[in-house]
Amino acid sequence: MLVPVSWLRNYVDIDNIPIEKLDESLVMSGSKTEAVEKVAEGVEGVVVGKITEIIQHPNADKLIITKVDVGEEVIQIVTGAKNVNVGDYIPVALVGAKLADGLKIKKGKLRGEISNGMLCSAEELGFSDNVIPKESKDGILILKDEYTLGMDIKEVLALNDYVIEFEITPNRPDCLSMIGMARETSATFDLSINYPRINIEEETEDIKDYISVEVKDPDLCRRFAGRIVKDIRIEQSPMWLQIRLMKAGVRPINNIVDITNYVMLEYGQPLHAYDLDTIVDKKIIVRRAEKDEKTTTLDGVERKLDEDVLVIANTKETIGIAGIMGGEDTEVSNNTKTIFLEAANFNKKNVRTSSRKLGLRTEASSRFEKGIDPNIPELAVDRACQLIEELGVGKVVKGKIDIYGDKLNKWNIEVRPSRINSLLGTKLSVDEITNILNRLELSVEGKGDNLLVTIPTFRQDLVKEIDIVEEVARMYGYDVIESTLPKGATWGAKTNGQIIEDYTKDTLNALGLNEITTYSFLSPKNLDLIGIPNDSFLRRSIKLLNPLGEEYSMMRTSLITNMLDVLARNYKRNVSNAFAFELGNIFIPHDIPVKTLPIEKKMLTLGMYGEDINFFSLKGVIEELLNRLGIANYDFEPEKTHLSFHPGRCANIVYGNHILGTIGEVHPDVLENFGFDNRVYIADIDFNIILQITILDRIYKPLPKYPATSRDIAIIVKEEVYSKVAEDIILKNGGSILESYTLFDVYRGKQISEGYKSMAYSLTFRAADKTLTDEEVNKVYDKILSELKSKLNAELR
Amino acid sequence: MKEQLLEILEKAKNHIESTKTLNELEQFRVNYLGKKGELTVLLREMGKLSKEERPVIGKLANEVRTSIENLLEENKAVIKEKEKNARLESEVIDVTMSGKARKVGNRHPLTLVLDEIKRVFIGMGYKIAEGPEVETVYHNFDALNHPKDHPARDFSDTFYINDDILLRTQTSPVQIRVMKKTKPPIRIISPGRCFRSDEIDATHSPMFHQVEGLVIDRNITLGDLKGTLDTFAKRLFGVNTRTKFRPHYFPFTEPSGEVDVSCFKCSGEGCKICKGSGWIEILGCGMVHPEVLKECGIDPELYSGFAFGMGLDRITMLKYEIEDIRLFFENDMRFIEQF
């Protein structure tokens, strides 16, 4: 909402308030300003001139030489403008003048002819393209009226002004008008407001002889008001009106259209002017459209309607879509002699639905759908007629149409000052509260803690006591309310699960992995890329009805594809090492089609590639993480069928009956799909289970008092024997004195037959209560060795 | 014999002083004082001496032995020192070469800032509540007093799964869930992912993050809201931070407001980050609307409360001067490793 300060000044005496103060105070009372801009900023030395002579430039076809009277002298200016004529009043930038774009005017010659200034366009005076009238758009701004030559253009056109852009919140459609903003200004500064005085001097004939109106659907059209104006002379509006509209962001068209726009900006009430001569049978009917009815709106587009769309019609056909756009056939043209001026109140929900359905949003529809006071239409029509009369471009016919069934009256709200004070933390007296509310034109009756506040119909947002609390708060000033802290103690803490999450992230960070964050949605195609079969549960997913595109169309059922996307992006950007993890949700539907909220399951996905990175790099990370989380008794079991992974380099992490997750080297086909030329390792862990089995509590174990004894054991076994099997045997036979074991070498090659490998373990023995003797250690060692020999056909190397 | 003793002493002196290594020195010790050493051998002949001579020579012999021992000790120390110096000299390294350590990983910048926010609120007695990303229309809009025809509900703004289920557009539904199952007093923050149908560009993302807060208790006032957020701003952005509360509108709070903080880059002087205004808008807030309390089974006549919400992505971008929101979701390792 663009509000020229000069316009605001018509209603409230703010002459003595500096612009900064105006801005700041309105912001603090709830009218947020987006911008405060100076009109014609930077323009200096531009005056009114009159063209007295035009001759063709002797040396240039596209240039003309003008003589311009600027009051004290007549100067010669060469220009390329095509829209100027002798007798035109125009803005002239004299030598030394500055224009809005920073250009400084100098004496000059154009193709040999002296040029001592420049004729200006509206753009050069600082107006943006979208508000400049068509006639002046590609040329000089032609002033409609006559002015004293040589006067500063900024004075003549009221350009010494500011325009404030307000952000109007959806609860305050009444503020989408100059009067609405004047009310806010008046309340904020506690100044009186002067509403426009509307009176029409002269009326002729009788409206009944011109038109009749029937409202068939009063539920969708609460009020329909209108007047007839005859002997219309369509022409450009006077400059003051044009400039005012331009400052408010509206492009001037012609006097009638400009006046309807002016009144709409002033009161917030959209108006529509019909060319009366085009209305068949001189009758207007407000009704629902018929099924599949068609009409052409004034933008020239044919629109298909249905029974839920409210239209304005004559006895034969539709001539406009109510509250949205008028029809092409009844539009005011340069030949229009008589107009019907309509101001109505249409149902906001209906306008909104129709506007969406037709894909047609207009200034009028956006105002109607926010809600307008049904008591304004009559005022607005009269105001427009008054302006037409004042401009002398039409004669107002006596009488008016006003069909207003369900009249909206003021209403009351019961308000307790104690409630206001207890919610705001203030100690306002009844008088103070009354004073604030009166400033807002809310009258207050009653006393003590029982006030009755009467609400004018332009404040339809005020319905409940709490709405009044807010009015008091914003006018009293949020900045004045004392800052306090809530009383009473509560304790703050993270939940156990949140602590485990932090612990997990800390550990993974310490192990060199970066945390990543990826979208909760993914592309179904990505599941193809990781080799997920068509019947996999991963494809049973939540689908969006209105995704941004196929690639964001389903809620993720796995974090793996997003992880691969991230790693692939890094790889393509030549990042040599990438170690990453994401802790996030996957979404598993209970039912398809979806009827209930899905299960949201937390997954931890890890990914790595880089120099010297292999399966065991990632496995080591997981082992250390599980160790830190106090999780033991899990196994890595070979998994050969997972299509995303290398069949010989993949394992499930098994904990009791649960599969905690899967780890593996990514399958070469998948790597190719994502554009990798290297090897990539991924693990995918069910964090919901982790949360259940994590033990962060620790109990101290005494440090050893007696020395340890080490023994190495190297065995030769068949290639397919998993180290885990050998280790289980070692562990089982180690008795109470086997403290730990480490596989320190796996060897194949010389001295080892093909199909066999040598595994070398270092065993550490220790007793808690004494120093072990060689005999004691040897006994256990021999047992381990003989078991390895018998169970695995192992040979001592 | 006396001469012999003095001779040994003289000889030993010369020898010891000319030694260069600890090994040589040890050899001398054995040569003179060992079981078969010169002095030891000589002293075995003490028995041949007369009664009168014996104590005199004995005394002298001890003096010689002590002298030699002292010499050995002194030289040992000197040689040790020399050897140490030689070693230190030979072990000079280029200390300007870069060190070696496995790099630790980093938290995502959004998590880093969220952790700071959590820390501040936990310190003020808040717990952290979480809720589903896929939500019901009821929890996301209806219960929050959103008018049925509110534009935020439109297909063009919100991702829907069906008529009743959507991707949450805010973390406020978590507040509804908490209020419905918890008796006041309530003090929570609810951080999380949110979704809106925005095409991806430098400042828009269909997925973003919010942190909302909720306090419900007896006698909670707008003044308490101001004080709380002012304290929060000072703890997150620095003790000199100032806050500005402006009225605003939200369907689920009334009175509602927005909060600006004095720019934490230029301290309010005006800079690129605050677009010259000296202020940065960081959050929306207000007193929980009585209709919302009622909907959650809390009597608005007995209890009142406030709620606030902020965009985590925006605050993180401001804090680290990140200009493109897409960087958060691209996850370039070189980006994450900067924080």
Description:
The complex is a heterodimer of chains A (797) and B (339). Chain A has 6 domains: 2-39 and 162-189, Phenylalanyl-tRNA Synthetase, Chain B, domain 1 (2-Layer Sandwich), CATH 3.30.56.10; 44-156, OB fold (Dihydrolipoamide Acetyltransferase, E2P), CATH 2.40.50.140; 207-404, Phenylalanyl-tRNA Synthetase, Chain B, domain 3, CATH 3.50.40; 412-476, 2-Layer Sandwich (Phenylalanyl-tRNA Synthetase, Chain B, domain 1); 496-693, BirA Bifunctional Protein, domain 2 (2-Layer Sandwich), CATH 3.30.930; 709-796, Ferrodoxin-fold anticodon-binding domain (Alpha-Beta Plaits, 2-Layer Sandwich). In chain A, strand 24 (443-447) and strand 25 form a beta hairpin. The model of chain A has no long low-confidence stretch (mean pLDDT 94). The longest helix of chain A has 19 residues, at 774-792. In chain A, helix 6 crosses helix 7, helix 14 (496-510) runs antiparallel to helix 17 (615-628) and helix 20 (723-733) packs across helix 21. Chain A has a 7-stranded mixed sheet with strand order 26-29-30-34-33-32-31, with helices on both faces. In chain A, strands 5-4-3-6-9 form a 5-stranded antiparallel sheet. Chain A has a 5-stranded mixed sheet with strand order 11-14-17-18-19. Chain A is α+β, with helices and mostly antiparallel strands and 797 residues long. Chain A is built from 21 helices and 38 strands. Chain B has 339 residues and is an alpha+beta fold. Chain B folds into 2 domains: 2-90; 109-336, 2-Layer Sandwich (BirA Bifunctional Protein, domain 2). Helices cover 42% and strands 19% of the residues of chain B. Chain B contains 12 helices and 9 strands. In chain B, helix 1 (2-18) packs parallel to helix 4, helix 2 runs antiparallel to helix 4 (53-90) and helix 5 crosses helix 10 (312-320). The termini of chain B are far apart. At the A-B interface, helix 8, helix 11, helix 13, helix 14 and strand 26 of A face helix 5, strand 1, strand 2, strand 4 and strand 5 of B.
